Batch of 3 targets.
Target 1
Amino acid sequence: MKPFLLIATRSDERAAAEEHASYCTLTGLLPEDLEWRRIESAPLGDVEFSRYSGIILAGSPFTVSEPNDLKSPDELRVERELAELLDRVIGRDFPFLGICYGIGTIGRHQGAKVDRTYGESTQAARISLTAEGLADPLFGELPPEFDAFVGHKEALAEVPPHLAVLASSPGCPVQAFRVGENVYATQFHPELDAGSMSSRVRTYSNHGYFDPAEIDQLIERVEAADVRASHLVLARFIEQYISSSPEPGTARGRVEAAMAQRV
């Protein structure tokens, strides 16, 4: 099968390793099925689409709406490289899933307004599918309402009409969208379960996502949340674009087995 490409930008070694492991666990992919490029410390390099089933852009401590003069040279480089990649992705309508940082990156590339109007503190939020989400081939297999982990300083405040808004929440009107037929983005985190979210809360306790004095209560709420339905976004993306047979033991077989356990 062709692997998927995971593009990551976390400099914290533990957080980066846990993120990659979480994607493997919740997609059913083995590490060799999910090529990992950490571009916070090295250039993205060439991405030859013919080698991959699809691309995932993971979340990040980077912030799209931050003024450029407050961004590091590496963050500005990452933004340039991702913009160039998205030129090609959107032009070819190549399978792509952007998560949290990804929704801001794709949104800005497509002319959306990204600012701090609809930032959300770290929590499990109730997500609702829109009419377009219910009709979408990927999102339409999720429950009409489900809980998912969020925690972001910025979000899409305005979207151009060519973006199909697929999901929303009371605190954030754009929780997911689609560009064309195969390019998706979520504001929420479908790659996190209670354990990985609790670890991330500890790692980023002083990064402005929540009051550090409330970390114990926050972790208690995280561990009590049921976000299994949100994981279907990842499993469905992999299942929809994977290029292999559905035999047990193959990547598709592992994905289908993982999907069966989500809800």
Target 2
Amino acid sequence: MYDAIIKKLKQLGTKRNRDRMARFGINTEKAFGISIAELRKIAKPLGKNRSLALKLWGSGWHEARILASMVDEPEKLTERQMDASVRKFDSWDLCDGVIQNLFKKSPLAYKKAYQWCESEKEFVKRAGFVMMAQLAGSDKKADDKTFIKMFPPIKKGALDERNFVKKAVNWAIRQIGKRNTALNKKAISLCKELLETGSKPAGWIARDALRELESPTVKGRIKGC
């Protein structure tokens, strides 16, 4: 099955898609050039298959790794596997896709978010904040305190000038602030604290987040929840 899938990925890949990926800042050194929509079509009939997922990840191919995140079993993830995987992230879409498809569903998700956001490696650090953003958007059972606890590492991360980090920090703030009215107010207060730091990346993060969090659209949506 593995060999057949890799063969199919090679056949589906196009230079046009690779060029498009490169324009969006995606590392195409080991990419076939396949859309996420196509990968989801391939993943659907495969179901959950951990053995296959590990082989696909081990191939090193960009799309094969994203496909692996679609078919792996989140409850069987180990810390060792998750840590090894994030160290291989070399593009924002691989980072975000693996977390959205797989890592956020793991019982280890919160623990890893806090650990990774302290890393000095750009994509590992991004992974920590993307995890926070994904959990804020998907974990409907979590209470407000769960996300307020994320504010200290978010404030610290907001000082990082690296593009992929600051965008993830911004995403985490916006997702937390869109959960409900109480968290919206606290996220807005956090943004105002960031503006007072005088930090250029923190200022960009705060201003961009405030545009959404203070918008009538967001205010109206969370008020109606």
Target 3
Amino acid sequence: MKENTLNKILIVCCLLAIVSCKAKKQIVVTRPPAPVTKPKNDLEAKLNAIRSQQVSFNSFSAKAKTNLNIDGNTNDCTLNIRISNNKKIWVSVTALLGIEVARAVITPDSILVINRLQSVYLKKPFSFIYTYTNRHVNYTMLQALLVGNAIPTLLNDSTKYEAVNNTINLSGSLQDVLYKLALGADFKVTQTNLTNDSQGQSLQVSDNNFMVSGNQKVPSQIAIASVAKNRKVQVNLHYVKVDFNLPQDYPFNIPDDYSASN
């Protein structure tokens, strides 16, 4: 696999994603219940009902069989993803025979990638992902998409709410981006669409075949299609294992003999 193609694959794995270690003793902190506030209006009550059914977690871990198509180049791999809520997304990328070819860590500010096949590493600000996707994508959005949640900023008081049969449709605009969300009767997101025609950018995410882990309901299949001008990326994730709130580590060390990549 050529280096430029591999680096593209690694960046996409960083975006979407995101080996088990010895468990450590968990510390449970009891917090007082949040004060109950009355919704200001009917729309807020409906959006609160949707928010209440989104996945809530401290940590998330998953194994996903993944197909990547980047500008027509297709590759299959396995992603081991770990998420520390609102802090970091850790991804280990394995190819045939379970050999790790890359490891990545995404934070709200940065992207770090180790390319083991080429013995190089990449250190970039989070904004580097805008080469491959919509400029409105941020860490919170990536995390929400990986666990099947609604993007929080789209649940706002200017959203148009429409219920048709067993489907709830939300739509509106956020700055120069038009968005549409489809949710089932259980308030779980089944489709997310973001479009910025002036910039030639779009992002479509479909969630299918939901599974239950503990008391959390998540999609077992996530299909992502991103267009950023002349770049097209398609990612199909199939979660084969999902766990919540297990103790986990996020190991990431750059070997001394690795060189920096552009």
